[in-house]
Amino acid sequence: MKHNSFKNDYSFAAHPKILEALAKFGAEENIPYGLDRHSENATRLIKETFGAKDAKVFFLAGGTQTNLVFISSVLRHYEGVISPTSGHINVHETAAVEGSGYKVITVNGKDGKLSAESVNQTVRLFTDEHMVKPRMVYISNSTEIGTIYHKQELTELYKACKDNGLYLFMDGARLGSALTSFDNDIDPKDLGSLCDAFYVGGTKNGLLFGEALVIVNPELAKDFRFHIKNKGAMLAKGYVVGIQFEEAFREGLYFELAKRTNLYAVKVREALTKHGYPLLPSSTNQVFAKLDKKRAEALIKEFGLEKWEEGQDYIVVRFVTSFKTEDNDIESLDLYLSQI
Amino acid sequence: MKHNSFKNDYSFAAHPKILEALAKFGAEENIPYGLDRHSENATRLIKETFGAKDAKVFFLAGGTQTNLVFISSVLRHYEGVISPTSGHINVHETAAVEGSGYKVITVNGKDGKLSAESVNQTVRLFTDEHMVKPRMVYISNSTEIGTIYHKQELTELYKACKDNGLYLFMDGARLGSALTSFDNDIDPKDLGSLCDAFYVGGTKNGLLFGEALVIVNPELAKDFRFHIKNKGAMLAKGYVVGIQFEEAFREGLYFELAKRTNLYAVKVREALTKHGYPLLPSSTNQVFAKLDKKRAEALIKEFGLEKWEEGQDYIVVRFVTSFKTEDNDIESLDLYLSQI
Amino acid sequence: MKHNSFKNDYSFAAHPKILEALAKFGAEENIPYGLDRHSENATRLIKETFGAKDAKVFFLAGGTQTNLVFISSVLRHYEGVISPTSGHINVHETAAVEGSGYKVITVNGKDGKLSAESVNQTVRLFTDEHMVKPRMVYISNSTEIGTIYHKQELTELYKACKDNGLYLFMDGARLGSALTSFDNDIDPKDLGSLCDAFYVGGTKNGLLFGEALVIVNPELAKDFRFHIKNKGAMLAKGYVVGIQFEEAFREGLYFELAKRTNLYAVKVREALTKHGYPLLPSSTNQVFAKLDKKRAEALIKEFGLEKWEEGQDYIVVRFVTSFKTEDNDIESLDLYLSQI
Amino acid sequence: MKHNSFKNDYSFAAHPKILEALAKFGAEENIPYGLDRHSENATRLIKETFGAKDAKVFFLAGGTQTNLVFISSVLRHYEGVISPTSGHINVHETAAVEGSGYKVITVNGKDGKLSAESVNQTVRLFTDEHMVKPRMVYISNSTEIGTIYHKQELTELYKACKDNGLYLFMDGARLGSALTSFDNDIDPKDLGSLCDAFYVGGTKNGLLFGEALVIVNPELAKDFRFHIKNKGAMLAKGYVVGIQFEEAFREGLYFELAKRTNLYAVKVREALTKHGYPLLPSSTNQVFAKLDKKRAEALIKEFGLEKWEEGQDYIVVRFVTSFKTEDNDIESLDLYLSQI
After folding, report:
1. How confident is the model at residue B95, as a pLDDT?
2. Do B226 and C72 touch (CB under 8 A)?
3. Min CA distance, A64 vs chain B (Å)?
């Protein structure tokens, strides 16, 4: 049976509505460098959605770029950013943060997350000018392993940051999936008061490309357009991203796509469970299952999965659903599982 | 009369054929990070077009980013890049090159260009380890003021670079316009043997966004994908750029659009000349005219022009034609010029 | 009883012979920037001493500077340096390496050391261009906790480096102490074939200041004087360091001072053991003892010790002997221990 | 006749009084990292001398390092420092400032100096976020060509900086020579109110090495010790520099040496003038004379001069006097001039 893979959530260009908006508004003359009316609308919609009325919003091209641009803007070179050891900036960004001149201070999190307590403990290790000075905490929501922060956790973490003079930054490459998870209890409207900055990922949720960086804390947005340009991250046709986010938040498309994607992840979980394969904790559009090597390799081949972890006699594989996942893909999976 | 502005060549999103290709191929599953078949096709087409069969081609998001990524990959921090004082990296990139840790060594060019002789002279000024070590020459074609390099000039310049152990890098943000200029004598097929690297600008020639960096000199491409990621410049949906360049070079759309744009620039020149306004030298899609202040201000307002230079009693304004310029825009300009 | 502290090995300016050499040769006219005959002599002596006849030797001001200068010269920004978690570059250099743009990849060592096996394992974790590329291994000898590498360990580690395309760099801030330890089995003459580069620490072994960086691998020394100047690390009066190292290696003063310092450390160990305090493993001029809190605090106050670790009911304190330690200091310690 | 060269002012290690102070106080136990009582005393003396009672003073190893450390501490990467084209940071520091990530904006000064007017004009060229943002002005006193700032010039320049939101930083590698010049009208006590920061050069005025960075503007000193360490510029034996500056300012040795050095420069000028060689403007310890090539080459050989500029039929040579220059050296020069 022909089907899409479960390889990742960025193998299809964009949702048709996004492309239609681009065709429609891109045919008109727009002001360049993100100063156009679509970026303005998208900014307004995002600020409303996330309860961040005084925030500044900047549209960038990709996730690693957004992390690099924001972190390098906030820190001085003797300061560091605390991250879970599993954090994207620590593992999968080819040292983009360190390459820009900033130390990532790693902490072994639990389920890919940092707790208030671990931040409090970490800060105490750095005592004088011979050591890096912690200045920011980086987290991802959803995390790199598909888990999410609950409101209580995030509230406490943010308080710990404030207590210790740290900024809290949330990588939202998969923010849509986090906030529409069955397990989520954070109202998007509260996010603006639970961190200093976050970004709303577009690339992994149906946009052609683009991330919206929301800087809630006004002291962190000073001269930010200078900074973006200095990092080579300012798009001449900034409105191309603005138009997409305008469309994504105009009538709720962003959360609609994320929700749908999560629902298919639930179906993947059901299929795997039904066939007896244990799952790792995760409540978003990434699903991790532990299988014997033979079955894992077969699934990897058939569904383009990523091999996440390999042990003596098992493999953990990752399934990712996307805005393009369809009933047919689930049926194919179910059928395949019943045959191997 | 309603008309488009002559503000710049990046105020309209993309040519319809580009959007169609995106819609068509983007609906299929693609391998991420630029390893897809469209990027592969585009690479092959570009290598053929520019006579660079051993080149490596990398697709990036924007011009400043491409300059930053390439220059920072080649240089060590004690080395510098020679640029005309008017070069984009020196003037209009918010110190992106220096911000990454590399000195731009400026030379007063002629007509926005560097000559072999000026490179030879410049290199002799740097004598020992207490001074920056020149290692690269940066030029733009077309230049920031719309002029172009002739084959003889480029040949000599490249020879001067090789004589002095320098790499030659050409910023091709407006390469299409340069190579289709009425004054151009460089066959695209020769470009691959006239420099160490260049880029083919998409953003300013009808693509949604994207630049194709062509590294001709193989020693400069080592580990380049690591480097791109490290600079935050690797797109997850790399195929989005690959699809566009594939379409641009599949049947000649790239040069077709550039040629058409240049023709309209010729018409702008004719209109200005007819009405008695002196032009600065330029043979591509940027046209610079010198006017008295009153008329200049009126034109700026009506046609969204950039004020390029201002003297005691004159203003130099810049007209830019684009893939969207139409006969109607020229007629509007002509009419307006006859009335002021 | 009046006595020196055991705080560290850099609280006294310099051994009298060093100051005499400075007074004598510094009164003559010298060529600046390290091109003088004393630096030349010192270079020759160091190359002979360490069996590194093709090495290049560069004199720098301090240890953190030497690490920063060497590591930043070798790596590209997408590459990383593997270090024990306890490594000086990771803990006590205020992110100097990351601040220059290079990731430190930490590995939990044993006794402050890295093994060949841990390097082999670590390298396997980094699989593609989305992750930092390991390119160097950093170790200290003696380590930050006073242990040393044995010849077998170092030989295997260097082999693991070569097998994996890594450079091996040894921080020798306390190299003298390591190579004159009672437990050492490395002949200084062998060091030149057991790593790609190392430095010979002067600051912590009786010199006024200064470290001698020995680059054994010729491909790593290219343009190095440009690089030193670029990092602000070239001394106009380079001969001031050259004179000191010439004196240190002219008649064996360097190892003589280190040996004497180690002998006093042995006496510190004896005193502590005699009074029943357990020691952590260490065989150089740093001695770590575990005491109950009351006695630890008393010792810290009386002998200016550093508190190394603190538990529920114990403190680990660090004693450091130096070229200035005398019998009297040991007697004072012994007496004090007998009274608390 | 045997004589010292006029090559530069850093070919002799240190004035005997400096070495004596080092021997004396260095034999006592000192607190490391610049927190010792000698550094404290030196700080107090420097603040008094330069009328900078609220300043923070930091002792560093060399001039390029001091420029690099201070400039990189103040600027963000999208900001630039305005410098005369002839400024040391632009010409003779191997791109140390750009290598750290900051653009040097060059302005053609007059006599090696920047005027208030040129700063006002320069700032107006930088209009938006696509251009580097000027944030600091760098000057040297004395300049690289031996000229000095008069009080009126400096007052106006500082005002221009304040008017434009710029910090003013004075490179004082040869500050002693500037402030004791026959042409100087700046009272050292006024310096603390005429700029935001400056440094007091030790290396070129009789110290073994070391520069005292005086940060007058308190907002620029935040976390500065972290920053110094991060740049590899913190000396473990910081007191070695502190002791020297304490001695230099305890009883006026610093200005005494500079004054004496200037007097010998006057004698060099007299000898050159007497023999008919034209001088370039300069009023400190650097003397520039224009000679025919034959005589210039002879002088260069005999007195180790630097060739400063070479024309068709002339050479400009540089004479530098130092704390070691003696009557005998002047007599030798006079005699030699009378014979060639």
Report:
1. 98
2. no
3. 5
A10 found inside a domain: no
Is residue D2 a part of any domain in this protein? no
Q: How confident is the model at residue A310 (pLDDT cuts 50, 70, 90)?
A: very high
> Residue A261's beta-bridge partner residues?
none
Q: How many CA atoms lie within 13 A of C10 on its CB side?
A: 22
Average pLDDT, chain B: 97
D77 neighbourhood in chain A, CB within 8 Å: 72, 227, 230
- Full residue range of the structural domain in which residue C59 is found: 16-251
Which residues, other chains included, contact A132 with Cβ-Cβ below 8 Å and sequence gap of 6+?
A78, A79, A80, A103, A105, A126, C94, C95, C98
**Mean pLDDT, rounded, for D220-244:** 98
Sequence-ordered list of residues with C-beta below 8 angstroms from that of C12, at least 6 positions apart, any chain: C322, C323, C324, D26, D27, D28, D29, D30
Per the CB < 8 Å rule, is C99 touching A78? yes
Chain A residues in contact with chain D using a Cβ-Cβ cutoff of 8 Å: 33, 72, 76-79, 101, 129-130, 133, 223, 225-230, 234
Q: Which of D251, D272, D303 is the last residue of a domain?
A: D251
Distance CA D140, CA D199 (A): 10
- Assess whether C236 and C93 both reside in one domain: yes
Q: With pLDDT > 90 as the criterion, what percentage of chain C qualifies?
A: 99
Per residue in D16-70, pLDDT (tens digit) is: 999 999 999 999 999 999 999 999 999 999 999 999 999 999 999 999 999 999 9
For B211, the token pair is 């630049």
CA of D230, closest CA in chain A: separation in Å? 6
Chain B hits for D104, Cβ within 8 Å: 98, 103
Q: What pTM value is reported for the model?
A: 0.98
Domain end residue (candidates: B196, B220, B253): B253
Instruction: Point out the least confidently predicted range of A68-72, A336-340, C39-43.
Output: A336-340
Mind telling me how many Å the CA of C157 is from chain B's nearest CA? Answer: 25
pLDDT tens profile D241-251: 999 999 999 99
Q: How far is CA D73 from CA A73, D136, D196, in A?
A: 14, 11, 13
Q: Which of C77, C95, C130 sits opposite A103 (nearest CB)?
A: C95
